[in-house]
């Protein structure tokens, strides 16, 4: 039965002061392509959360992907290295992928994850007093559902957590992942 409702897909992509999307967003598509990942920008049925760990002054990164599809959760951890050309452009990505299960089970993990507002927390650029770290480690989070896509980032959340409650929540998310999946970040940030 057609109820006459039109489904609207919502996209939230941060904008810099100059009106452009941040560099991490502009660089995301080629990185996804090199890693063999499907873009989340048109949504995901039912939920996928990607947490990208970006480390300053290194060619290495990490990615956690949490998915819920058909009522079942799964997790994949990517450790990857950018392969650079002579002119300092990324020519490929070497990756190692492993599956994960939370130590205390999916119901407890997902309850804690959502309690930190990971799906609704604002981008750091929307927080007036977020410290202006010119360089450093950062986390980029993508959240996709059937009806929405959003991406946001936090630079050095551990350093900002004493001043910014949202940074504290991001640090709690990262610590939860460390604890539940016995995950070793390259650096704590």
Ordered list of secondary-structure elements with their pairings:
Elements lengths: L9 E3 L10 H4 L1 H8 L11 E8 L5 E10 L2 E13 L5 E11 L5 H10 L22 E8 L2 E8 L1 H4 L4 H17 L8
The helix/strand order is EHHEEEEHEEHH
Molecular shape? globular
Mean pLDDT across all amino acids? 93
Q: Please give the count of helices.
A: 5
Low-pLDDT stretches are none
Largest sheet: 7 strands, mixed
Distance between the termini: 51 Å
Q: Helix coverage percent of residues?
A: 10-25%
Number of strands: 7
**What structural class do helix, strand and pairing data support?**
alpha+beta
The radius of gyration is: 17 Å
* Proportion in β-strands: 25-35%
Q: Give the spatial strand order of the biggest sheet.
A: 1-7-6-2-3-4-5
Concise overview:
This protein has 189 residues and is an alpha+beta fold. The chain has 5 helices and 7 strands, in the order E-H-H-E-E-E-E-H-E-E-H-H.
């Amino acid at each position: 039965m057609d109820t006459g409702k039109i489904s609207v897909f919502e996209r939230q992509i941060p904008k810099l002061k100059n009106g452009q999307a941040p560099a991490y967003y502009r660089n995301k598509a080629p990185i996804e392509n090199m890693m063999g990942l499907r873009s989340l920008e048109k949504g995901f049925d039912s939920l996928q959360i990607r947490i990208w760990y970006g480390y300053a002054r290194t060619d290495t990164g990490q990615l956690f992907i949490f998915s819920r599809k058909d009522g079942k959760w799964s997790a994949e951890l990517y450790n990857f290295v950018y392969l650079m050309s002579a002119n300092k452009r990324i020519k490929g990505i070497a990756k190692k992928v492993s599956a994960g299960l939370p130590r205390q089970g999916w119901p407890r993990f997902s309850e804690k994850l959502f309690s930190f507002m990971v799906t609704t927390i604002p981008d750091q650029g929307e927080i007036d007093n977020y410290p202006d770290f010119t360089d450093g480690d950062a986390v980029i989070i993508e959240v996709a559902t059937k009806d929405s896509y959003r991406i946001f980032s936090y630079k050095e959340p551990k350093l900002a957590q004493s001043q910014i409650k949202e940074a504290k929540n991001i640090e709690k998310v990262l610590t939860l992942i460390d604890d539940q999946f016995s995950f070793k970040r390259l650096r704590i940030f």
